[in-house]
Specification:
Archaeosine Trna-guanine Transglycosylase, Chain: A, domain 4, 9-stranded mixed sheet, 4-stranded mixed sheet, alpha+beta, Pseudouridine synthase
């Protein structure tokens, strides 16, 4: 008897040494699912929260990628590398005396300068595509490609601990923030260089490390048990269609725009806020996600429709 495809999000604790794409490939084989995608790349060196969308849940990826991230990072002062982490070649090495002269107060003061919005240039060793090729492939070929700065926001950045040249940081930032680039910039501001030794993502939007399934438990049963439904994953407010409105479910599934009054959208959701459109398809079932929508130019518009 065919097994029904899994629909939803599984949160895994990415181990070191695997790329995010390799994790997706491995989970597809374990779960025997056709469609899967992650919601934000983690470096092979990094570990931690990696949400994976399965099947129709891949339509949610754009919403989940856009959420804030939280990281724990261990950095090394006094050494800068080509890859901005410990696997790269050393390009700057400060003296032990120069690193020792940096006080905890100096570090705290510099960290404060990175708070708030800024424009960050992505590192050459990254998965961004330029002319159809990943930047890290250009870098390995010895090419330096011009990169456009990206708008990011660092909400909080603090030192958790320090032992000599080794510093632990806590970072809360917007999507698209490269922690390696941030650390490299911190090292430059301190005048001694720095790189990432260890990096762990402890939260991605609403998903936390407490939910993440470690690699030793990557079985279909374990991952199925932790499956997060579409309705739960978004965290968006929702409306349940009135079952007394004839043909409404099919109209939504067909992407038909309607007046807010036709769908009985409450006033607080009529001002551009995204919300979920749900339907009670059977009395003994939880409401099912039909669409993510918003009101614009006095009509209900759909960002995603789930058929």
């Amino acid at each position: 008897m065919p097994v029904a495809p899994l629909v939803g999000i599984v949160v895994v604790d990415k181990p070191p040494g695997l790329s995010s794409a390799q994790v997706v490939h491995r989970l597809r084989k374990i779960l025997n699912e056709d469609r899967a995608g992650h919601t934000g790349t983690l470096d092979p060196l990094a570990t931690g929260v990696l949400p994976i969308c399965l099947n129709v849940a891949t339509k949610l990826a754009g919403f989940l990628i856009a959420e804030d991230k939280r990281y724990w990072a261990q950095i090394q002062l006094g050494v800068a590398t080509t890859t901005l982490d410990r696997v790269g070649d050393v390009v700057v090495q400060a003296s032990d005396a120069a690193v020792a002269a940096i006080s905890d107060g100096d570090i705290h003061q510099v960290l404060q300068t990175f708070l708030g919005p800024s424009a960050q240039v992505p590192p050459m060793y990254s998965a961004i595509k330029v002319d159809g090729m990943r930047l890290y492939k250009h870098a390995r070929a010895g090419d330096v490609i011009e990169r456009q700065p990206r708008d990011i926001t660092v909400h909080s950045l603090c030192m958790l601990a320090r032992q000599g040249a080794t510093v632990e940081l806590s970072v809360h930032c917007s999507k698209g923030t490269y922690i390696r680039s941030l650390v490299d910039d911190i090292g430059r501001a301190l005048g001694v260089g720095a790189h990432v030794r260890e990096l762990r993502r402890i939260a991605s939007g609403r998903f936390s490390i407490a939910q993440a399934v470690p690699i030793e438990r990557w079985t279909r049963d374990e991952l199925h048990a932790g499956l997060i439904s579409l309705e739960t994953a978004t965290g968006l407010p929702g409306i349940v269609l009135d079952p007394g409105l004839p043909g409404m479910i099919e109209r939504v599934r067909n992407g038909e725009t309607m007046l807010p009054d036709e769908m009985r959208i409450p006033e607080e959701l009529r001002h551009g806020t995204h919300f979920q459109v749900l339907a009670q398809l059977a009395p003994d079932m939880a409401p099912q996600l039909l669409a993510i929508a918003h009101v614009a130019t006095y009509r209900v518009r759909y960002a995603r429709v789930f058929r």
